[in-house]
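TASK: fixed-backbone design
INPUT:
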């Protein structure tokens, strides 16, 4: 592989006009496609294989036009102090608002609070339920604007009006902190390279890669039902890996120049060596992201595949566009150890009188491996302790910031009607096979009334055919509580006895039941997903490192960093530690998708540093150094680059903590802290300590497996012969 990539790097350097034109054409094509594509809202949400989804599908068949999964809005009214909602003036204002709410083209129905018994016992709070024909993710902006405008008219009449429900679902905003993250990345690159040109190349190519990826996602959003969250996460991951991969190539290019190689030769060798690490690091990220499809949640699968596509583009750009741009840059990109005129007067840096920081640190670890290993493992173990208290769930309006109208509506409904009113359960009774359908409906209602934690059970509402009915159940507890989850399971446990007595089927659905099913589905998929992703990457790393213990150590180190990161997420988002600093206004259960998504993304990213750092060590070992010295050599050349790459990735991910979307905020924080733990504790401390303790055993591989594995030559051993036969090495002119 190294030889092939070496030739590719030289070709891209030599044919830079063709390569640059090709990428510009791809960017233009993707941009035109995005600009001309029809607008698409957020993707629809379905969870195949769950009881809640089966109930929704049944409702679509038996209640045509009901739009069971359509968006809902609750317009909550509160009377001025000392007044009642039943006062004539307040009642007139509400009825006028209800009439306005029903005029929208996407509105399926509006329930009047006075005819629907939606006024609190004390008479101070009332609500109007609005049902839409399409889901909240597909609702047009005009319908949302009309909803807000109607509420505004009621406020003008003196009422307090807030709006809850998924009808106000909008695209997440990341805020200015995302730009700050990119700015920090730029500063780190300038410090690392000592040159504005060299620092600008990774940023430029990463932006081009993300531009192509996100534009393609936008162009395909309508036919593939992709949502705004998909492009946000693709941007997050694409920026991080795009900068890192380009950083690896440019850094190795400068190192090759410093060894006296001609620029085209240096570009070829940079792509042949660091490029090999980039390819395998990229493959691990792609495997981890595409592997999210095993969960069988379409939205998660689309997010993973879209992000994987952006990573693949980042790899291709690093291998082709970076050497092409290095050709354009010419002598403005200095050999390692030299700075540009702006940053260092063009003077070559004096040779240091002592080894660099990476060498000194690695030498210390090699001398004290047991102490460093124990300190690292104990530190990560302590950070992982909160993960034992992990509670999973999906956000509802109760997790919104208190400044939002959704949260205020949630609180008003809780005050007026009880905490469980915000998460009613929809029980669907399929009595098509029952001899006495009305008796079956009544039996289900009576059974549910006898359960604990039930406040209200509405009379059965049958369809026109009379073979299916809907019963609404209001729990005592709030939607995200464990008590409500127990109630859902208790109702479902009644299904078998009801079926034997009446031949009717019972299904529980609604937003609360759907959230419970999603959490369970994600929990069940976590271990199979871990086995698939870690197993495939383990096999890939065996090929890369030609070792059994090194990939095993990489996987175990990854598990440590992920557990520690989950502990940090629990401490901040569930326990509330430093929540003010992170602008987390409401603590609660960790989002159900967080653990599995973090496992997928962090595993791939962690392998970036593992591959880049350890391939440098193996390269030194293959070229004759003893194991301890190979560890030091790997750090001498790679520690600075890996540190810069980690800081950049942390900065980019941290930029998404400013998002208005709780999922994006949590993922941004989780990925940032996971990269910190993995890069600076696992890869910089635990990895060299373990390799120092293992010695030559670290690179052991059974003879039969050695013969069976393909030789991909990630270390670039074959490039020595390649260079010698070419005879093109020459000293770089001053």
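OUTPUT:
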């Amino acid at each position: 592989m190294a030889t092939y990539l070496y030739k590719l790097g030289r070709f891209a350097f030599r044919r830079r006009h063709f390569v640059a034109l090709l990428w510009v054409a791809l960017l233009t094509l993707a941009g035109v496609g995005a600009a001309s594509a029809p607008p698409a809202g957020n993707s629809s949400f379905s969870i195949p294989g769950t009881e809640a989804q089966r109930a929704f599908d049944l409702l679509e068949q038996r209640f045509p036009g009901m739009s069971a999964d359509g968006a809902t809005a609750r317009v909550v009214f509160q009377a001025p102090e000392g007044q009642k909602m039943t006062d004539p003036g307040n009642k007139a204002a509400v009825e006028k608002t209800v009439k306005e709410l029903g005029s929208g083209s996407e509105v399926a129905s509006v329930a009047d609070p006075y005819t629907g018994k939606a006024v609190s016992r004390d008479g101070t709070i009332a609500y109007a339920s609005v049902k839409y024909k399409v889901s909240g993710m597909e609702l047009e902006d005009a319908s949302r604007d009309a909803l807000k405008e109607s509420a505004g008219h009621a406020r003008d009449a003196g009422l307090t009006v807030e709006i809850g429900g998924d009808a106000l679902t909008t695209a997440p905003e990341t805020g200015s902190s995302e730009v700050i993250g990119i700015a920090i990345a730029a500063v780190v690159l300038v410090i690392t390279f000592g040159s504005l040109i060299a620092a600008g190349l990774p940023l430029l190519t990463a932006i081009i890669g993300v531009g192509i990826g996100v534009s393609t996602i936008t162009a395909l959003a309508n036919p593939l039902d992709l949502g705004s969250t998909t492009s946000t996460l693709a941007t997050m991951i694409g920026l991080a890996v795009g900068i890192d991969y380009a950083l690896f190539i440019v850094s190795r290019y400068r190192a090759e120049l410093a060894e006296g190689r001609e620029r085209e030769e240096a570009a070829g060798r940079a792509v042949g060596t660091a490029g090999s690490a980039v390819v395998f690091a990229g493959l691990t990220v792609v495997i981890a992201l595409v592997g999210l499809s095993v969960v069988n949640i379409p939205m998660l699968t689309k997010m993973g595949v879209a992000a994987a596509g952006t990573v693949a583009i980042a790899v291709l750009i690093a291998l082709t566009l970076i050497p092409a741009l290095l050709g354009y840059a010419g002598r403005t990109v200095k050999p390692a150890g030299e700075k540009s005129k702006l940053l260092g007067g063009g003077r070559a840096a004096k040779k240091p009188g002592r080894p660099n920081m990476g060498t000194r640190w690695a030498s210390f670890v090699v001398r004290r491996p047991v102490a460093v290993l124990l300190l690292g493992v104990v530190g990560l173990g302590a950070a992982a302790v909160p993960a034992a208290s992990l509670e999973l769930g999906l956000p509802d309006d109760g997790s919104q910031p208190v400044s939002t109208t959704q949260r205020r509506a949630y609180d008003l409904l809780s005050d007026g009607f009880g905490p469980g009113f915000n998460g009613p359960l929809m029980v669907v009774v399929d009595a098509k096979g029952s001899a006495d359908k009305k008796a079956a409906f009544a039996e289900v209602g009576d059974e549910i009334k006898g359960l604990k934690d039930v406040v209200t059970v509405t009379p059965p509402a049958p369809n026109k055919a009379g073979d299916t009915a809907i019963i609404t159940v209001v729990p005592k507890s709030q939607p995200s509580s464990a008590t409500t989850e127990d109630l859902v399971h208790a109702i479902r446990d009644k299904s078998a006895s009801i079926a034997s007595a009446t031949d009717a089927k019972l299904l529980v659905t609604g937003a609360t039941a759907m959230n419970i099913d999603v959490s369970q589905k994600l929990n069940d998929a976590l271990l199979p997903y871990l086995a698939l992703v870690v197993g495939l990457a383990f096999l890939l790393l065996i090929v890369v490192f030609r070792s059994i213990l090194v990939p095993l150590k990489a996987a175990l180190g990854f598990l440590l960093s992920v557990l520690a990161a989950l502990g940090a997420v629990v401490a901040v988002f569930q326990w509330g530690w430093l929540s003010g600093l992170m602008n987390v206004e409401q603590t609660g259960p960790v989002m159900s998708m967080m653990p599995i998504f973090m496992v997928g993304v962090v595993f791939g990213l962690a392998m970036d540093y593992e591959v880049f750092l350890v391939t440098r060590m193996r390269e030194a070992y293959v070229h004759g150094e003893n194991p301890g010295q190979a560890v030091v050599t790997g750090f001498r050349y790679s520690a600075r680059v890996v540190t810069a790459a980690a800081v950049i990735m942390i900065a980019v991910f941290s930029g998404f903590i400013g998002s208005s979307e709780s999922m994006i905020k949590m993922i941004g924080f989780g990925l940032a802290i996971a990269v910190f733990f993995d890069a600076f504790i696992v890869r910089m401390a635990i990895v060299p300590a373990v390799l120092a303790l293992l010695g030559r055993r670290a690179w052991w591989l059974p003879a039969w497996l050695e013969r069976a594995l393909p030789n991909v030559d990630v270390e670039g051993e074959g490039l020595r012969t390649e260079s010698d036969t070419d005879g093109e090495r020459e000293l770089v002119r001053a």
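COMMENT: Confidence is low (pLDDT under 50) at residues 346-350, 721-734.
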